[in-house]
Amino acid sequence: MNKTWTAYPYILWIIIFTIIPLGLLFFFSITVTTPTGMIFSLDNFRRFLEPIYLKVLMRSLSLAGISTVLCLVLGYPAAMFLASRDLKHRNTMVLLMVLPMWINFLLRTYAWLPLLERKGLINTILRSVGLPALNLLYNDFAVFLGMVYNFLPFMVLPIYSVLSKIDRNLIEAAEDLGADPVLVFRKIIFPLSLPGVFSGITMVFMPAVTTFVISRLLGGGQFTLIGNLIEQQFLTVGDWNFGSAISIVMMAVILIAMGFASKYETQQEGTGLW
To answer: Taking the complete model, does pTM exceed 0.90, yes or no?
Structure first.
């Protein structure tokens, strides 16, 4: 009986902060405002199928996908490095990896502006050694840099958590049987780390596909992503119905991506090393 009562605050929290907002979002997405009031309509979803909005969606998915791949390429070696250190140094390195996440997301992104701008620190150093200044801001490079910088810890930490729990006896047994480091990685380390890889991909792709701060600050407003489009509909245009429809579509995309990641993660957990 006591356990039932302790669950009520969590149920109330879910109802107020999850179910009700999602219900309102769904309600606005399937209605349109007319002079006589709100009426049921799927015009918001039909409007989203127009080429201009599909182009924004495809651009958002491609940028998020490339950023996720870059985070994986950079994050996996970093996670292996962290997992291979002795306990004292490993804790210090993990702390340094987590430390930027304690700073406000907006401030972390703003910090790149004085570094990348035309008269910023990087171009100042280049000019001081006789090299021409580079166009580092308000382009795809700046957006990718901002995404990778902000979301890289979400890739590193799940992989590191899995790698640090791998039984070292498996690796030592493979080495005793004559397996070289490449074979050990391919047959033991990488297969056992796949749950962390899939978790990292999900944790990076979800915020990357809906971000709007990075594209606005580092892209200079020249790159309209799906997050920027949703923000514009709610805050600038005031079209809550269309903004809600876009949000529902993005929620479906993210849930599908999570479903695929969960499916492959489950399949990998049920397979052997070889």
So the answer is: no
